[in-house]
């Protein structure tokens, strides 16, 4: 029997239109924008100035605190300016603007395709290399990986769990990575095992990717302690706490981190980036991004360097369809609509979904009929209808007491609601306000 998590969940249409599309390279853009705050935590601090010449892989912004991450140039060229730029969320943030001039890489990066299996580094050296490379979680959260690897004193990691679920509809970047870079991925997982000093590593993959399950299961036989766990297709199984529950049957307590139950979770993209950083001395400046949608001429999985305008990916996929209603950064469940296609791809960009006008339109909001469907599908055991109401009324103390901060913003409640109520919109608003209150209290 296939495993899955114990609470809630939905099964929206998968629409994996680009599942069999190989990874493609993109051409060079003329100008790129590199946001300094593309990771969770404190934005990086620029160490280059206007007029500086940079190479591919060169450090251009240093982490500016423990929860922060280095940023490296994805292209060679000249720094045009350091200024504010619009990001995917619609806000202006500090960014480095680079005029691209050729493709000259740092000499320290190993650009060969040769698989390098043996890693002689100590756990401390592995953590240092990952920190220097600016690696963050590539599943969407963009949490700096060196922080996650630094297990707090008094805690012990028993399991390394690798997220190959990719439960978000439409997106296939992780799937194609598992198929085309399986060997490198497994070496990356082995390095993470060594860095965490854990013996057991489990790769969770949903059963709608039988080719990836078969391939990695066979290759994993060569590596000590790594195994693949096939999972029932159930959204949002890619959520960290849901994946832990599905794979090892443990439930992370409210407000706690996975390490409390002996688990550390990394996305497959992150594990591959670890391989490239440790074995090839290559910083994180590119990733796989899916471009998809029912009207897209050529759905694709692109290898994209950060800073590349979203418009370049759309153009490569055949251009913006005439019936476009929204361009979404991410998938339909957790992604957010873009205000402009000129915003840059960042470390957390997993996909660009172009939705048809007929699908993008919201239905009229009807009164709540107290059906409790939102409660039954919530993977965190919350009461979304109640949290929405409190968010509307600004009842922040009650929101905190009713654990609004536990919401993982998966959108299952909004998806299932027969009254088309904007549950997640108001819950996000409430979370934002409660988060401010908690931070001010800590200060």
Please tell me about this protein's structure.
- The chain is α/β, with parallel strands linked by helices and about 450 residues long.
- It folds into three domains: about 160 residues, Ubiquitin-like (UB roll) (Roll); about 160 residues, NADH-ubiquinone oxidoreductase 51kDa subunit (Rossmann fold, 3-Layer(aba) Sandwich), CATH 3.40.50.11540; about 70 residues, no CATH class.
- The chain has 14 helices and 17 strands.
- The strands form four sheets. It has a six-stranded mixed sheet, sandwiched between helices. A four-stranded antiparallel sheet has the order 2-8-7-4, with no helix packed on it. The protein has a four-stranded parallel sheet with strand order 11-10-9-12, with helices on both faces.
- α5 links the parallel β10 and β11.
- The radius of gyration is 21 Å and the shape is globular.
CATH topology of the largest domain: Ubiquitin-like (UB roll)
Largest sheet, order of strands side by side?
1-14-13-17-15-16
Radius of gyration equals 21 Å
* Secondary-structure content class: alpha/beta
The poorly predicted ranges are none
Number of domains: 3
Strand tally is 17
Envelope shape: globular
The description of the largest β-sheet is: 6 strands, mixed
CATH class of the largest domain: Alpha Beta
Percent in helix? 25-40%
């Amino acid at each position: 029997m296939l495993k899955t998590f114990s609470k809630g969940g939905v099964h929206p249409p998968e629409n994996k239109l680009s599942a069999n599309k190989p990874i493609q390279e993109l051409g060079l853009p003329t100008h790129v924008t590199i946001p300094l705050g593309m990771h969770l935590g404190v934005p990086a601090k620029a160490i280059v100035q206007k007029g500086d010449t940079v190479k591919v892989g060169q450090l251009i912004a240093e982490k500016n605190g423990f929860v922060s991450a280095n940023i490296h140039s994805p292209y060679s060229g000249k720094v045009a300016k350091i200024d504010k730029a619009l990001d995917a969320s619609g806000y202006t943030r500090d960014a480095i603007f680079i005029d691209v001039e050729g493709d000259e890489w740092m000499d320290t990066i190993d650009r060969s395709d040769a698989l390098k299996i043996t890693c002689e580094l100590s756990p401390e050296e592995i953590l240092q290399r990952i920190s220097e490379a600016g690696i963050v979680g590539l599943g969407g959260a963009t949490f700096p990986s060196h922080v996650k690897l630094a297990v707090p004193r008094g805690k012990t990691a028993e399991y390394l769990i690798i997220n190959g679920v990719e439960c978000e509809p439409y997106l296939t970047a992780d799937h194609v990575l598992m198929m085309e870079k399986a060997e490198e991925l497994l070496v990356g997982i082995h390095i993470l095992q060594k860095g965490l000093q854990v013996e057991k590593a489990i790769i969770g993959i949903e059963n709608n990717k039988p080719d990836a399950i078969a391939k990695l299961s066979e290759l994993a036989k060569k590596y000590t302690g790594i195994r693949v766990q096939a999972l029932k297709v159930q959204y949002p199984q890619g959520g960290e706490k849901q994946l832990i529950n599905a794979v090892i049957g443990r439930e992370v307590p409210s407000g706690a981190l996975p390490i409390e139950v002996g688990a550390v979770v990394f996305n497959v993209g992150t594990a591959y980036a670890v391989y490239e950083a440790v074995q090839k001395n290559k910083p994180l400046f590119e990733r796989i991004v899916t471009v998809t949608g029912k009207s897209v001429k050529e759905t694709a999985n692109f290898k994209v360097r950060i800073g590349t305008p979203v418009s370049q990916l759309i153009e490569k996929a055949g251009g913006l369809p005439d019936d476009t209603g929204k361009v979404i950064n991410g998938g339909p469940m957790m992604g957010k609509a873009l205000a402009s296609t000129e915003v840059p791809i960042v470390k957390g960009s997993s996909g660009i979904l172009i939705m048809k006008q007929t699908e993008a339109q919201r239905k009229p909001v009807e009164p709540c009929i107290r059906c409790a469907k939102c409660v039954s599908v919530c993977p965190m055991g919350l009461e979304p209808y109640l949290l929405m109401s409190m968010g509307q009324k600004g009842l922040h103390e009650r929101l905190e007491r009713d654990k609004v901060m536990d919401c993982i913003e998966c959108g299952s409640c909004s998806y299932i609601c027969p009254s088309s109520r904007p549950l997640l919109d108001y819950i996000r608003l409430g979370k934002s306000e409660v988060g401010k209150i908690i931070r001010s209290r800590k200060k």
